[in-house]
Write a structure and sequence with these properties.
Length: 169
Protein backbone atom coordinates (compact mmCIF):
# COMPACT_ATOMS: atom_id res chain seq x y z
CA UNK A 1 0.00 0.00 0.00
CA UNK A 2 1.28 3.46 -0.89
CA UNK A 3 0.69 6.84 0.68
CA UNK A 4 -0.57 9.70 -1.45
CA UNK A 5 2.77 11.51 -1.27
CA UNK A 6 4.45 8.49 -2.88
CA UNK A 7 1.75 8.36 -5.57
CA UNK A 8 2.48 11.99 -6.44
CA UNK A 9 6.22 11.33 -6.85
CA UNK A 10 6.00 8.29 -9.15
CA UNK A 11 7.31 8.78 -12.65
CA UNK A 12 4.53 8.73 -15.28
CA UNK A 13 5.60 5.22 -16.34
CA UNK A 14 5.60 3.98 -12.71
CA UNK A 15 2.20 5.58 -12.14
CA UNK A 16 0.69 3.80 -15.16
CA UNK A 17 2.36 0.54 -14.17
CA UNK A 18 0.96 0.84 -10.63
CA UNK A 19 -2.53 2.08 -11.49
CA UNK A 20 -3.05 0.90 -15.07
CA UNK A 21 -5.16 -2.06 -13.94
CA UNK A 22 -7.53 -0.03 -11.78
CA UNK A 23 -9.85 0.15 -14.79
CA UNK A 24 -9.96 -3.37 -16.25
CA UNK A 25 -7.42 -3.80 -19.09
CA UNK A 26 -7.56 -0.02 -19.73
CA UNK A 27 -4.28 1.69 -18.78
CA UNK A 28 -5.34 4.71 -20.86
CA UNK A 29 -7.34 5.90 -17.84
CA UNK A 30 -4.21 6.03 -15.66
CA UNK A 31 -2.30 7.66 -18.54
CA UNK A 32 -4.88 10.47 -18.58
CA UNK A 33 -4.98 10.76 -14.78
CA UNK A 34 -1.21 11.04 -14.30
CA UNK A 35 -1.22 14.48 -15.94
CA UNK A 36 -3.52 15.81 -13.19
CA UNK A 37 -1.11 15.26 -10.30
CA UNK A 38 -0.41 16.14 -7.58
CA UNK A 39 -3.50 14.74 -5.89
CA UNK A 40 -4.52 16.40 -2.62
CA UNK A 41 -6.64 13.43 -1.50
CA UNK A 42 -7.69 9.94 -2.48
CA UNK A 43 -11.13 11.32 -3.32
CA UNK A 44 -9.58 13.79 -5.77
CA UNK A 45 -7.55 10.97 -7.32
CA UNK A 46 -10.72 8.89 -7.74
CA UNK A 47 -12.50 11.87 -9.31
CA UNK A 48 -9.66 12.48 -11.77
CA UNK A 49 -9.76 8.83 -12.88
CA UNK A 50 -13.54 9.03 -13.28
CA UNK A 51 -13.33 12.28 -15.23
CA UNK A 52 -10.83 10.70 -17.63
CA UNK A 53 -13.45 8.07 -18.42
CA UNK A 54 -16.32 10.57 -18.66
CA UNK A 55 -14.34 12.76 -21.08
CA UNK A 56 -13.48 9.84 -23.37
CA UNK A 57 -15.40 9.36 -26.61
CA UNK A 58 -18.33 6.93 -26.45
CA UNK A 59 -16.40 4.33 -28.44
CA UNK A 60 -13.65 4.29 -25.80
CA UNK A 61 -16.21 4.11 -22.98
CA UNK A 62 -17.84 1.14 -24.68
CA UNK A 63 -14.43 -0.52 -25.12
CA UNK A 64 -13.85 -0.04 -21.37
CA UNK A 65 -17.13 -1.76 -20.54
CA UNK A 66 -16.33 -4.55 -23.01
CA UNK A 67 -12.94 -5.07 -21.30
CA UNK A 68 -14.82 -6.44 -18.28
CA UNK A 69 -15.45 -10.17 -18.03
CA UNK A 70 -18.91 -11.67 -17.98
CA UNK A 71 -19.75 -12.51 -14.39
CA UNK A 72 -19.38 -16.15 -13.48
CA UNK A 73 -18.82 -17.23 -17.08
CA UNK A 74 -15.08 -17.24 -17.63
CA UNK A 75 -13.77 -18.02 -14.17
CA UNK A 76 -11.02 -20.61 -14.30
CA UNK A 77 -10.91 -20.73 -18.09
CA UNK A 78 -10.31 -17.13 -19.13
CA UNK A 79 -6.59 -16.29 -19.16
CA UNK A 80 -7.49 -12.58 -19.50
CA UNK A 81 -9.49 -12.49 -16.26
CA UNK A 82 -7.50 -10.13 -14.07
CA UNK A 83 -6.44 -11.12 -10.58
CA UNK A 84 -8.65 -8.33 -9.23
CA UNK A 85 -11.73 -9.62 -11.10
CA UNK A 86 -11.09 -13.21 -10.03
CA UNK A 87 -10.84 -12.15 -6.38
CA UNK A 88 -13.88 -9.84 -6.57
CA UNK A 89 -16.09 -12.46 -8.22
CA UNK A 90 -14.98 -15.01 -5.64
CA UNK A 91 -16.03 -12.69 -2.80
CA UNK A 92 -19.52 -12.53 -4.32
CA UNK A 93 -19.52 -16.36 -4.48
CA UNK A 94 -19.79 -16.34 -8.28
CA UNK A 95 -17.24 -19.14 -8.30
CA UNK A 96 -19.62 -21.27 -6.20
CA UNK A 97 -22.89 -21.09 -8.13
CA UNK A 98 -25.31 -24.00 -8.02
CA UNK A 99 -26.15 -25.51 -11.42
CA UNK A 100 -29.50 -23.67 -11.33
CA UNK A 101 -27.88 -20.34 -10.45
CA UNK A 102 -25.22 -20.83 -13.11
CA UNK A 103 -27.89 -21.57 -15.74
CA UNK A 104 -29.87 -18.48 -14.69
CA UNK A 105 -26.76 -16.27 -14.75
CA UNK A 106 -25.70 -17.68 -18.12
CA UNK A 107 -29.14 -17.03 -19.65
CA UNK A 108 -29.32 -13.49 -18.23
CA UNK A 109 -25.75 -12.71 -19.35
CA UNK A 110 -26.56 -13.97 -22.86
CA UNK A 111 -29.76 -11.89 -23.04
CA UNK A 112 -27.94 -8.82 -21.73
CA UNK A 113 -25.07 -9.17 -24.20
CA UNK A 114 -27.48 -9.75 -27.08
CA UNK A 115 -29.48 -6.62 -26.20
CA UNK A 116 -26.63 -4.24 -25.36
CA UNK A 117 -23.54 -5.67 -27.09
CA UNK A 118 -21.50 -5.54 -23.89
CA UNK A 119 -21.12 -7.56 -20.70
CA UNK A 120 -23.21 -6.80 -17.63
CA UNK A 121 -21.06 -4.87 -15.14
CA UNK A 122 -21.79 -4.43 -11.46
CA UNK A 123 -19.54 -3.69 -8.50
CA UNK A 124 -19.54 -7.24 -7.14
CA UNK A 125 -17.73 -6.20 -3.96
CA UNK A 126 -20.88 -4.31 -3.01
CA UNK A 127 -23.26 -7.13 -3.95
CA UNK A 128 -24.23 -10.71 -3.31
CA UNK A 129 -25.05 -13.26 -5.98
CA UNK A 130 -28.77 -12.72 -5.28
CA UNK A 131 -28.40 -8.94 -5.74
CA UNK A 132 -26.40 -9.51 -8.93
CA UNK A 133 -29.05 -11.80 -10.44
CA UNK A 134 -31.83 -9.37 -9.49
CA UNK A 135 -29.94 -6.38 -10.92
CA UNK A 136 -29.27 -8.25 -14.16
CA UNK A 137 -33.01 -8.94 -14.58
CA UNK A 138 -33.94 -5.33 -13.79
CA UNK A 139 -31.27 -3.75 -15.98
CA UNK A 140 -32.36 -5.82 -18.99
CA UNK A 141 -35.34 -3.43 -19.21
CA UNK A 142 -33.07 -0.36 -19.66
CA UNK A 143 -32.16 1.45 -22.85
CA UNK A 144 -28.62 1.28 -24.24
CA UNK A 145 -27.86 4.87 -23.19
CA UNK A 146 -29.09 4.34 -19.63
CA UNK A 147 -27.27 1.02 -19.40
CA UNK A 148 -23.95 2.38 -20.68
CA UNK A 149 -24.13 5.16 -18.07
CA UNK A 150 -24.94 2.61 -15.33
CA UNK A 151 -22.12 0.31 -16.42
CA UNK A 152 -19.67 3.23 -16.25
CA UNK A 153 -21.01 4.20 -12.81
CA UNK A 154 -20.43 0.61 -11.64
CA UNK A 155 -16.92 0.63 -13.15
CA UNK A 156 -16.13 3.82 -11.22
CA UNK A 157 -17.27 2.09 -8.02
CA UNK A 158 -15.03 -0.90 -8.80
CA UNK A 159 -12.09 1.42 -9.52
CA UNK A 160 -12.64 3.43 -6.32
CA UNK A 161 -12.40 0.24 -4.25
CA UNK A 162 -9.31 -0.88 -6.15
CA UNK A 163 -7.67 2.51 -5.53
CA UNK A 164 -8.51 2.24 -1.82
CA UNK A 165 -6.73 -1.12 -1.83
CA UNK A 166 -3.57 0.50 -3.22
CA UNK A 167 -3.47 3.96 -1.59
CA UNK A 168 -3.73 4.63 2.13
CA UNK A 169 -5.55 7.72 3.30
Amino acid sequence: MMCLQDVNTLSPAQFVETFGSIYEHSPWVAEAAVTQRPFASLQQMQLVFSQAVQQAPESQKLALVRAHPELGHRMGIDPDLSAESTQEQGRAELDRLSPTEYKQLRELNDAYHKKFGMPFVICVRKATKAIILEALEQRLTSSFTVELAEALKQIDAIAALRLQDKVQV
